[in-house]
């Protein structure tokens, strides 16, 4: 089943600050030729942070591509060659003002593997110290502290639709928080 297609030709259609778009002309294992559109992405991180027991630190963030505000975890894109843990610490501080005493890798997801090469690593941030955010120009972010039970309800009723946030919170509830879903965080 692991028969990889043969790449016959790659065409770069676009190259930007965060992504590149390529069209790959391939020959599949069965011999048929076709194309694949691939968005190349250098990777990103997200941070599951509990600034106080039972309350998760989320953001209301204006997302231009959707044309609306989204409730999500603090997150960001890796700089070229940047260590994911260092990126998580930087993004948490820049976006929320909080500094983490400890960052633990929780899981890795691939948000849209049919077209996107992005690898997104989600970290747990512990031992938080508040501070002032240092947001990038144009970022419209508001920190919100949400009780975990309410965050789970927000997933259930569609107020949280961001994939990384859904994955992190449900991972936490299923594998780390215990039978009640609240955990020690």
Gross CATH architecture of the largest domain: Alpha-Beta Complex
Largest sheet: 4 strands, mixed
Please tally the helical runs, counting DSSP H or I stretches of 4 or more residues: 3
Fraction in beta strands: 35-45%
CATH class of the largest domain: Alpha Beta
Shape: elongated
Tally of individual domains:
2
- Give the C-alpha Rg: 19 Å
CATH topology (fold) name of the largest domain: Nucleoside Triphosphate Pyrophosphohydrolase
- Helix and strand succession? EEEEEEEHEEEHH
Secondary structure class reads alpha+beta
Q: Uncertain spans, ≥5 residues at pLDDT below 50?
A: none
The CATH superfamily of the largest domain is known as Nucleoside Triphosphate Pyrophosphohydrolase
Number of strands: 10
- Widest sheet: strand ordering: 7-4-9-8
Please report the distance between the alpha carbons of the first and last residues: 42 Å
Give the helix level as a range of percent: 10-25%
Mean pLDDT rating: 93
Properties at a glance:
single chain, 185 residues, alpha+beta, Nucleoside Triphosphate Pyrophosphohydrolase, 2 domains, four-stranded mixed beta sheet, three-stranded antiparallel beta sheet, 10 strands, 43% strand, elongated
Fold blueprint:
Elements (H helix, E strand, L loop, with lengths): L5 E10 L3 E9 L5 E9 L2 E6 L5 E9 L4 E5 L2 E3 L6 H13 L2 E11 L10 E10 L11 E7 H9 L6 H14 L9
Parallel strand pairs: 4-9
Antiparallel strand pairs: 1-2, 2-3, 4-7, 5-6, 5-10, 8-9
Structure, briefly:
The protein is an alpha+beta fold and 185 residues long. Helices cover 19% and strands 43% of the residues. The chain folds into 2 domains: 36 residues, no CATH class; 125 residues, Nucleoside Triphosphate Pyrophosphohydrolase, CATH 3.90.79.
């Amino acid at each position: 089943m692991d028969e990889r297609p043969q790449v016959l030709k790659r065409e770069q259609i676009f190259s930007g600050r965060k992504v590149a778009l390529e069209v790959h002309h391939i020959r599949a294992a069965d011999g048929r030729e076709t194309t694949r559109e691939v968005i190349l992405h250098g990777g990103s991180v997200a941070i599951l942070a509990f600034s106080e027991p039972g309350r998760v630190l989320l953001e209301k963030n204006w997302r231009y591509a959707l044309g609306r505000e989204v409730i999500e975890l603090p997150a960001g894109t890796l700089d070229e060659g940047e260590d994911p843990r260092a990126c998580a610490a930087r993004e948490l501080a820049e976006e929320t003002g909080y500094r983490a005493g400890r960052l633990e890798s929780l899981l890795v997801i691939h948000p849209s593997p049919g077209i996107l090469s992005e690898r997104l690593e989600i970290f747990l941030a512990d031992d938080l110290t508040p501070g002032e955010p240092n947001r990038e120009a144009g970022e419209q972010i508001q920190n919100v502290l949400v009780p975990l039970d309410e965050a789970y309800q927000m997933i259930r009723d569609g107020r949280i639709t961001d994939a990384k946030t859904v994955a992190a919170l449900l991972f936490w509830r299923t594998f780390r928080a215990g039978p009640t879903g609240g955990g020690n965080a």
